Amino acid sequence: MQIISYTKLELRELIESDFFKKLNKIPISRHRAGSHINNPYCADDDILLWAAFENETLAGYSSVLPDRIAFNGREEKIYWTSSTWREENMRKTTLAAELLFKIFERYKNRVFVTDLLPQFEKAYSKLRIFKFPETEIGITFFRNSAFSQAIEIHFPKLKLIMPIYSLLEKCFNFTLFSVRKLTAKKIKMDFNIIESAVFDTEFDDFIKQYCIENRLVERDSVYFDWIVKYPWVLQGKPNDESRRYYFSSVADRFEYHSMKIYNKQKLAGFMFLKIRDKRISVSFSYLNNVCVKDAAAGILHLASTKDSDVITVFDKKLISELRKRRTKYIFAKKTEKKYYFPRNFNITSSFFQEGDGDIVFT
What's the rounded Cα separation, in Å, for the pair 107 and 102? Predict the structure, then answer.
C-alpha cells in the first residue's frame, strides 16, 4: 500500500496524466481539482489530497480545503476536512484512520470539521484535539412533497409500491403548483433585488462592516468570485468521469444565485443561494433588519420560479420571516449542523454560516 500526497501543482499533474485516465476509480474530479488549484487561500506547499494505491488501483483517499477566516480582529489560516473514502474491501482495515491521521499530522491544531457523517461523530468527539462539538440549528421548509427517495432508502421493503407512491406524489405536487399559480399575488417589495455576481468595493465594504457588527467570519469578493468561477458540481448528466468518482460531481441542476438588495442606491443586504436539483440552500446571508422581509419574498419567488421542493435556512431573521408565510410551504423541519473546532481557537459556531467549509460547493 502506497499513500501519495498532492500539492496543487502535483494535483494538476495528476489530473493531466495518463495514469489518471486509466484509473478505474479516481480520487478527485477534474473540475474539483481545478477549484483547489485556484483556491486563493491555498499555498504552494499545502497538501490538498492523500490517495492510497495498491498495485496502481485506488484504495482510498482523504482531502482538505484550505481557508482564511477573519474574526475578532484576527486572521487565521485553517483547513476544513473535505472528503474521505475507502474501497469496500478495505472497510475492515485501518486505512480510513490512516488517511485522516495524515490530515491531523500535517495541519495539527488548524483542522476544522463540519457536515460530519453520523458514524464518525463518536470517534471525532474522543479526539483530544477538538473541543466539544457545537451545533447550529436551521430550518428546512418543504414546499412540495419530496419523500420518495428517502422512503426508498430507509424502507427498502416498500420498494414494490414506490412507483405508485412516486406517481401520487407527482400528482399532488402538480396540483399544489397549479393552485399556487392561480392564487399567487404579485409581491410588492420596498427594496430592489438584483441578481449580480459582480463583487466590487461597495460589496466588500458592506460585507466587512456587517460581519464585524454581527460577529461573523469576514468574507469578501475574492471568496465569492472563486466559488462562482470554480464549482465542484457541474450541471449535466453522469458521464464516464463522474461514474469513476464516489462523491458528486454532476447534478441535473446546480446553480448559484447572488442576490443584492438595495435601499434606493445603497446596498442593504446580500444573499448567496445554492440550488441543487430541487433544493435551495441559503449558503450566506448578510441582511440589515429593514430588508429581511423582502429577502424572504425573493427566496420564495426564486423557489417558485425553479419549482424547488425544499428551502434550507440557518439565518434566524430569515427563518422568522419565512415562518410567517405559512401558505408557502407544507411543513418545516429542524436541521442541524455540527462543528468541531481545535481547542486552541477561541471561536464558536455562531461565527459561521450554512455554506462555510465545503458545503457551498456541494
Answer: 9
In what helix (H) or strand (E) does residue 322 lie, and over which residues does it extend?
helix 316-323
Q: What is the pLDDT of residues 192-246, one digit of tens each?
A: 999 999 999 999 999 999 999 999 999 999 999 999 999 999 999 999 999 999 9
- Identical topology for domains 2-135 and 138-340: yes
What's the rounded Cα separation, in Å, for the pair 160 and 152?
A: 10
pTM (2 d.p.): 0.89
Task: Report yes or no: 111 and 287 within 8 Å, Cβ to Cβ.
Answer: no
Give CA–CA dist 240/132, Å, rounded. 42
Classify 131 as helix, strand or coil: coil
The three three-digit cell numbers of residue 40, written as one number: 486563493
Q: What is the pLDDT of residues 5-50, one digit of tens each?
A: 999 999 999 999 999 999 999 999 999 999 999 999 999 999 999 9
Pick the CATH number of 138-340 from 1.10.10, 3.40.50, 1.10.8, 3.40.630: 3.40.630
In the structure grid, which three cell numbers stand for residue 175, read together? Answer: 396540483
CA distance 71 to 67: 13
Burial of 237 (0-12, 13-18, 19+ CB in 10 A): exposed
Nearest to 96 by CA among 50, 48, 54: 50
Residue 232 CB neighbour total at 10 angstroms: 24
Please state the domain extents for the chain.
2-135, 138-340
SS3 of 80-119? EEEEEEECHHHCCCCHHHHHHHHHHHHHHHHEEEECCCHH
How many angstroms separate the Cα of 44 from the Cα of each of 9, 12, 47, 64? 7, 12, 8, 14
Cell of 315: 439565518
CATH number, domain 2-135, options 3.90.180.10, 3.40.630.30, 2.40.10.10, 2.40.50.140 = 3.40.630.30
Residue 80: half-sphere exposure toward Cβ, Cα within 13 Å: 21
